[in-house]
Design goal:
Chain lengths: ~120, ~120
């Protein structure tokens, strides 16, 4: 049982694993930093602590972003999308968002280059 | 069988339904417009036509964004994330990205208001 506000929980449309998608965006610059997943409890912790907390699908545990690396995300704002299955977190990212050391998880692999 | 470049297909890490997540972001402003899903063929069509094409999970069909509404997405740039399961599309969105008529799918439901 999660501590998440039932009025919020009622609006979530979770996938088969009980998760919603979460997009983290840097405040101000608008950079899309990373995409991860949350269950109700991860969202509850994120909303109440303003420290981005995800559900790690690979480790099957809660994951406070930056708890190990120091690359924390202070959560400025959280929005839910129109069909309830995706969150947008506006954050202040400390250091690199990506485990590779890149600023964002989208820095390294360009499939289609920008047009002029 | 998709026409997607095998060198790209090899880097995708699809979910159980064969899909990767796709975040659409407005070029210039950085607004996160929406999140949807692509299979290999949807990505192939997106890369080759520069018109954002998704896989509709509800309708189980390809969905050229704006084909009905006129609210198309011209794709400026496509990036794959570090673990291969999420795409970032930098687009020029015509009109509203959200089916509700809102500019983005994240406009209506604020779970945690912005701090000053």
């Amino acid at each position: 049982m999660s501590g998440l506000d039932p009025a919020v929980a009622d609006r979530l449309r979770r996938n088969a694993d009980g998760l919603v998608c979460a997009v983290a965006q840097q405040r101000g610059t608008g950079e899309v930093l990373m995409v991860a997943w949350m269950d109700d409890e991860a969202l509850h912790r994120t909303l109440t602590t303003r420290r981005a907390t995800y559900w790690s699908r690979s480790r099957q545990e809660y994951w406070v972003k930056g708890a190990t690396s120091g690359h924390t995300q202070h959560v400025h704002e959280v929005r839910l999308d129109c069909d309830g299955d995706t969150l947008l977190l506006v954050v202040d990212q400390v250091g690199a968002a990506c485990h590779t050391g890149d600023r964002t998880c989208f820095d390294a692999d360009v499939l289609l280059p920008a047009q002029d």
